[in-house]
Amino acid sequence: MTIEDLHRAGRLAAEYPRVRGLLGDMEQNGSGLSSAELIRAGRLLARLDPEEVLREHPETPTTTVAITGHSTLSMLPPALTAELARHGLLAAVALGDFDGYVFELGDPASDLYTRDPDLVLCVLDPAIVFDEVPCPWRPEDVATVFEAKIDLIEGLAARFAGTARGTLVLNTLPLPRRFPAQLVDLTSRARLGAIWREANARLLRLSGQGSTVVIDLDPLLADGVPASDTRMSVYAKAHLSAELLAAYARQVGHLARHLAGRTKKTLAVDLDGTVWGGVLGEDGPDGIEVADSVKGEAFRGFQRALKQISGQGVLLAAVSKNDLRPVREVLSSHPRMTLREDDFVRIVANWRPKHDNLTELAGSLNVGLDSFVFVDDSPYECGLVRHALPDVAVIAVDDDPALHLDRLLADGWFDTRVLTDEDRGRVSKYRDELVRKDFLDSFDSLQDYLRELRVAVRLGPAGEAELARVSQLSLRTNQFNLTTRRLQPQQVRELAGDPATQVLAISSADRFGENGLVGVVTVRRDGDVAHLDDFLLSCRVFSRGIEQACLSAVLRHARDSGARAVAGYYRRTPKNGMVAEFYPRYGFRPAESDGTFVHDLADIVSAPETVQLTASLGGPA
């Protein structure tokens, strides 16, 4: 069965959940679909009415996208639709007018703003500069026009940040050879190159300001993607090639997946043939390849990349068919090994099926299987995990270790908008969490365990330095998340500055150390009713009474500050069923509107005796 087969049968909307797998089957050696295949599949998917898909599958996560720019961009919506579908997202794409980006971003009454999209792609191309230089032109003329364009773009980005809730995506401008080649002296060409790169650097510095993200096209061009097709540029005003738009769509797909709360957290890697060459059980520690040979250097490069990724908060785990003792000995004492045992949050080495080990590892870490990426050089193991655990992203590598890294990075599984201090310390926190689990296993009852764990919780307004982490939690937390409202950094900042709203950060610690900022409650006061618009908690700290203690504090503060009632909201998703009864469990009653619960503040639950709570709540709630 293919996407074309479903389309011809008129079953594409009815069978939309299958599309993700069908596109995965089309992947070429882990390196992605060709742009032609992508656009062909995307054209069929783009014909779907998103409302029809949602009628058939109402829980399908949908990303609304508005595309605007300077040139002809008709090749982008199909590519983008297919890329989002690869990640299980339904794209609702609206393409703006040719050369309409200034009006569409500059006018708050434009259709772009009326649609209230999750993502706005303002696609920039070199013609926005070269269409306005004089003839003949010099590098200094280009500098003048480019600087003015960036001034304009900065103003449009500021207007967007002050008007819209979504994320604005800009991009750097490629410099096709046909422009510098028109300068006959090499000194002028070098000056033009410097001017162009300096202007693009200014664009890149807009990334992270407000709700703006900037995609750097240079790495895509460096990988051989053509910047433009001269004939299409001249005749159709399509100034970026179809291949570049497809590669750009892939990057946007990674961003959309992150904004939808689907960023991966855990990288589980095989060892033999994946992290080192050879088979440890047969070749012995001295026989495996980790350096000092052509392939050994490739394995060492892959290990360095794994260490780099894990150093940014990705949980690195080993899942290997091996005996545990020799694996630990190699990781602790092999003189040429780059990765060491303490780089891994857990090492699983046994002879059980790997899908069973992954399932058990997810339970130990208290994360979902959909947060896993699994890398293995065995087609058999990859196929088995794909079949048994379809939520796990499987990356098949082969016997050429030089290609391992490209295949791992091809889909940006761990991409995030901003990296926080909490991210950098995540691996050690999860390692501590496994120690807590071992500690739990030594007790006969959960109550005894919690009493000895000595949980301490701090609840109070989020400070400026914590706002990025608050946004990140809202984007990543799926299980204990009552509304799954995805808050971008600018939205969090606006909520924190709203006098009627409190953004409350939950931090915790225990006998094993600090857990950091692990939860968020946003409380909005409207008259004599306090509204809990968001309530979410990291999976690392489930089942310790933290949520009960914080809810108790919020309810008491609302009552003491004159509120008549507190309203809480639950919006069901495929991942948050565990909290469906959270509000009723603590004295809320269902209201008339679906998913709304109300507490009359007459009988407020107490904080658990096993939790020491420090609450500093002022403000409107």
UniProtKB/TrEMBL annotation:
Protein name: HAD-IIIC family phosphatase
Superkingdom of the organism of origin: Bacteria
Gene3D superfamilies, sorted: 3.40.630.30, HAD superfamily/HAD-like, SGNH hydrolase
Source organism of this protein record: Nonomuraea rosea
InterPro entries for this protein: Acyl_CoA_acyltransferase, FkbH_domain, HAD-like_sf, HAD_sf, HAD_SF_ppase_IIIC, SGNH_hydro_sf
